[in-house]
Amino acid sequence: MIDKICSLAYTAGCAIIQVYNGFIPLDIQKKSDNSLVTNADFSAHKIISEGLRILTPQIPILSEEESDLWINRQNWTQYWLVDPLDGTAEFLNHNDEFTVNIALIQSGIPVLGVIYAPALKKMYYAIKDKAWKKENGLNMQLRVKNRQPPIVVISRSHNNNKKLNNYLKTLPKHQVIKMGSSLKFCMVAEGKAQIYPRLGKTHIWDTGAGHAIAIGSGAKMTNFQGEHIDYTPTHSCLNPEFIVSLI
After folding, report:
1. Tell me: the pLDDT tens digits for 208-245?
2. Alpha helices, DSSP H only, in 101-192?
3. Residues at the annotated binding site?
4. Rounded to whole angstroms, how far apart are CA atoms 3 and 29?
5. In which band, very low, low, confident or very high, does the pLDDT at 139 lie, cut at 50, 70 and 90?
6. From which residue to which does any coiled coil extend (predicted)?
7. How is 23-53 classified by DSSP, letter by letter?
8. 64: which DSSP letter?
9. Residue numbers belonging to the annotated binding site for substrate
10. What is this structure's pTM?
11. Binding annotation for Mg(2+)
12. CA dihedral 209, 35, 187, 224 (to 10 degrees)
């Protein structure tokens, strides 16, 4: 199953790159919440949703580009959670830091996660509490790494945040790196960062795949009260503020 999900993410990434590199003209629209969406998002969504319905027709899908009504979602115990193009700002700014995110949620827990960075040609994936990175045809199992002083990775596009800056002031000596999209989860999983705090709005499709990869590498993801993040369906698809860190 994990190989087929990685293949879907790769195919969606190839469609995104067609727009990114100008082979297909870019079309930008505004959603009802004023966030931007492109034809690359829609192309990737179509590939992933159609592929998942063929692979697992019995499992419903919640995607950023196709949310389902609460009356339909409220009794889901298992579902696919998809962000077809995470990091639209990075995509539009052409800095390569955007990803395709696919996660499988069971009983509120992300048990499978795939993150593909098409411009960087890096695939991250996790299942059964193990995580790997595939690059240049080589697979490497991921494990978190301690480091002193720790590296804190924060959002490239959402870092002008008073709460985040106040939080950073509470930490002992550390280094800050800015990164786009769900690649911040991957940095912790690879041991290239030790802390990823997010004080601000995110949706569950932004985090499900990264959460699975963080868990698989030996990290943890909790809210700032130390409680685990739960993906059991609720009216809102918003996450609480959270922190990814070493156990």
Report:
1. 999 999 999 999 999 999 999 999 999 999 999 999 99
2. 162-170, 183-190
3. 64, 83, 85-88, 206
4. 33
5. very high
6. none
7. SS---EEE-TTS-EEEHHHHHHHHHHHHHHH
8. T
9. 64, 85-88, 206
10. 0.97
11. 64, 83, 85-86, 206
12. -80
